[in-house]
């Protein structure tokens, strides 16, 4: 139910519609605060808090496992320059999952355009698991 509420709060798309994610690694924990620290801060995801004024605030993005499946109740609460803070969403009463140091996670950012602009190239994961990973260079300038 929580995840349905979260997606209903966005009212723009479903998780399957999101084509961009940021792959990150768990690098530590602050157990007293219930935080998991990852190596993707605002330099990887942007500083945009586009959902801050919506019914359900997603912080800096939804947290997923490495394959892209959302992890119920987690979001990126805050983002420093190079580190993100993953926490239990305020509306979620479940426990924090076990995310040992080294765990790969995907973040679905709440503003894909601003996130995409942070990177020089994109690593494109094809739908066919047997197909090769593609790399698309980004062009910039106006």
Mean pLDDT equals 84
Span between termini: 44 Å
How would the global form be characterised? globular
What are the secondary-structure elements, in order, as H or E? HEEHEEEEHEE
Number of strands: 8
Q: Which bin fits the share of residues in helices?
A: 10-25%
The percentage of residues in β strands lies in 25-35%
The number of distinct helices, counting runs of at least 4 residues, comes to 3
Q: What's the quaternary structure here?
A: single chain
Low-confidence stretches: 1-10
| CA-based gyration radius | 15 Å
Given helix and strand content, the structural type is mainly beta
Strand order of the largest sheet: 1-2-5-4-3-6
Largest sheet: 6 strands, antiparallel, barrel
Q: Could you write a compact summary of the structure shown?
A:
The chain is mainly β. It contains 3 helices and 8 strands, in the order αββαββββαββ.
Features:
disordered N terminus; mainly beta; 8 strands; globular; 142 residues; two-stranded antiparallel sheet
Descriptive report:
Strand 3 (61-65) and strand 4 form a beta hairpin. This protein is mainly beta and 142 residues long. The longest helix has 9 residues, at 2-10. The termini are far apart. The radius of gyration is 15 Å and the shape is globular. 13% of the residues lie in helices and 33% in strands.
